[in-house]
Every structure is written in structure tokens, then in C-alpha cells.
Write a structure and sequence with these properties.
328 residues; alpha+beta; 4 strands; globular
């Protein structure tokens, strides 16, 4: 009975702490609509808090009863904690990959993302669990041997995704003009040069992506190509982008010209499909303003409000001049 009360109390406290922390971190506010991404964040946060509280209670009762916690037990607890965090990270990050998949310009199929995330998170987690369940020495040796290359690949993959640095384990291949690519184990880093601007992007090895040969770009034409080459049985603008990834990638690789055209066109076509795609382009190029909009008009309305009090970058400053008081 005492254990049931302890677990029940822990769950209640975990729920309260989850809501409090999610509100502080602006992940979720009570009363707002819960999206799938938000629900996964909340479940993951709740799981971590619950596990932590149960672990603290376990340590507390051990100390209360004056029982010693051996080094092996402490190591087992740490390994189990890391393993659970890795599994939760796999679920959260793969979900984010899926939600953002329509806006990715790489031609890699989604199973490539699953394979990479599994190598990064699930495989190390399974190795840790294997070590916990098997106390024999040879399992520890296997763990160490497998962990070193996995850790190197993990660090290499994460640092390119987060910081867009060159891969540590790679070789360089020169492309057209001054562009080049650093080819790694799982990912390739492309340095696409246009005049004095270098655009850095990473793509999976399975992608057929290469740096485009830059020329005077016709933004309107590329947007029209996306609109005209429509997906089957779908009116979702992200589906349009998904089936026209090469066209969309060309636009993103010309951010200044694309943003200037898109924000101007958005003012006049905010209620149309073209306006929605204009808004997606503006959002993907200008990361200073992030908002989950439902239409071009919705994006423009909130963007205009944002411009009145933003820490503006060059895109925002340009938009201020264009939008001004024109859009109501």
C-alpha cells in the first residue's frame, strides 16, 4: 500500500512539475491546443521527471535505512538513465524530422532519417541495455569497441547538423565554380558559392543533391513551376514543395532575392496558394520570426506585429520598408 501511495504521489507531482516546466520553457500553456509535437515533448518531459523522482526516492530510502549503494549499482543506474534518455531523444527528434520533412530540400527518402537516428540513438541505447543485462567481461569489451566509432559518428553528425561545420571524418571534392563538398560517412556538407555568398547545407549520402550552377534567377518562374507541378490529390502547400524540391532548393540558395520577391508578392496574394508558399519561403529564409501559421495572410498579420518590436535583421528591416502600413 505504501508503494502504491508513493508511486501515485510521484505521478501527481511529476504532472504538476511537467506543466510548470513546460510553461516556463514556453513548450505548452494550460488551455492552449496540444499539437502532436507538443504532446511528445510533454510525454518525454513527464517520463524524465517521473524517473528522476523515483530514482531520488529510491536513494532516499536507501539512505534512510542506512543501506549502502555500491559502485556497480550506481553505474547501472547511470547507464539505465542514459539509455532511457537516448530512447526518448530518438522519439522526439525523429518526430521533428517527420514534421519538418516537407520543408527539407534533400531528396533523401524518410527511411534514411530513421536509419541515421537509429544509429545515433537506438543502437547506443541497446548496447547500454545489453551491458546492464549481461555482467560478463566480454560484453564490456564489445561495448567499448562498438561505442568508439558510434560516438565519433554521432559527434560528427550532430556538429554538422547544429553548427554546419565541416565533417571531421571526410574528404573534399571540388564542384563547379568555387563550390565544394566535404563527403562524410553518413552526411555530405555542401559549400555552395555565389559571388561573395557561401551557402552551407548538409544532405544524406543517399541524396542526389549537388550545388546548383548559379545564374540570374527568375524567382517568379520557379514559384510558378512549384504551383503548376501540383501533387496528386492534395492542396497542402507543403506537398507542392515536397514534389518540387529542386525548384524550392534553388529559391532557398538565393535567399536575398527570394525573400524580397516573396514578401512583396505575399502582400498582394496573401489569401492564395501562392501567398502560402511565399510565406513558407519567407519563414524558411528569415529564421528571426518563427510562427506556426495556417495561411499566407496569417503569417503576414503576425509578422507585421512582430516587426513593431523585433530585434531586426536585414530581412526584417527590408520587410519594414515594404509592409509598413500597407497591410491591414
Amino acid at each position: 500500500m505504501k508503494k502504491i501511495l508513493t508511486i501515485t504521489g510521484t505521478i501527481i507531482i511529476s504532472l504538476l512539475l511537467t506543466l510548470l516546466i513546460s510553461d516556463i520553457l514556453s513548450l505548452y500553456q494550460i488551455g492552449s491546443v496540444i499539437t502532436r509535437t507538443t504532446s511528445i515533448y510533454l510525454i518525454s518531459l513527464f517520463s524524465v521527471i517521473t524517473y528522476t523522482l523515483l530514482l531520488l526516492i529510491y536513494i532516499f530510502y536507501k539512505k534512510k535505512n542506512k543501506e549502502k549503494i555500491g559502485k556497480k549499482k550506481i553505474i547501472s543506474i547511470i547507464l539505465l538513465s542514459i539509455s532511457l534518455i537516448l530512447i526518448l531523444s530518438f522519439i522526439v527528434i525523429l518526430n521533428i524530422d517527420y514534421l519538418n520533412y516537407y520543408t527539407y530540400t534533400t531528396s533523401s527518402p524518410f527511411y534514411a532519417y530513421i536509419i541515421v537516428r537509429s544509429i545515433e540513438f537506438l543502437l547506443p541505447s541497446l548496447i547500454l541495455l545489453t551491458v546492464l543485462l549481461n555482467k560478463k567481461q566480454h560484453f564490456k569489451i564489445i561495448f567499448i569497441i562498438l561505442s568508439i566509432p558510434i560516438l565519433l559518428i554521432l559527434i560528427d553528425t550532430l556538429q554538422i547538423m547544429i553548427f554546419k561545420n565541416s565533417l571531421l571524418i571526410s574528404f573534399r571534392k571540388h564542384l563547379e565554380e568555387k563550390s565544394y563538398v566535404d563527403k562524410g560517412i553518413l552526411l555530405n556538407t555542401f559549400y555552395c558559392v555565389q559571388e561573395d555568398t557561401t551557402t552551407i547545407s548538409w544532405h544524406f549520402k543517399t541524396s542526389k543533391y549537388t550545388c546548383p550552377i548559379y545564374e540570374n534567377i527568375n524567382i517568379k518562374e520557379h514559384i510558378e513551376n512549384i504551383i503548376n507541378n501540383r501533387p496528386l490529390a492534395s492542396s497542402n502547400p507543403y506537398d507542392y514543395i515536397n514534389v518540387n524540391k529542386e525548384e524550392y532548393q534553388i529559391l532557398l540558395l538565393n535567399p536575398d532575392e527570394t525573400f524580397k520577391y516573396a514578401i512583396n508578392d505575399l502582400i498582394n496574394n496573401s489569401d492564395s496558394l501562392t501567398g502560402y508558399i511565399d510565406a513558407i519561403l519567407c519563414s524558411d529564409i528569415n529564421k528571426n520570426f518563427q510562427y506556426e501559421f495556417t495561411s499566407g495572410k496569417d503569417y503576414l498579420t503576425h509578422y507585421q506585429a512582430f516587426l513593431t518590436e523585433c530585434d531586426c535583421n536585414k530581412y526584417d528591416n527590408y520587410a519594414k520598408k515594404i509592409i509598413g502600413g500597407q497591410y491591414e
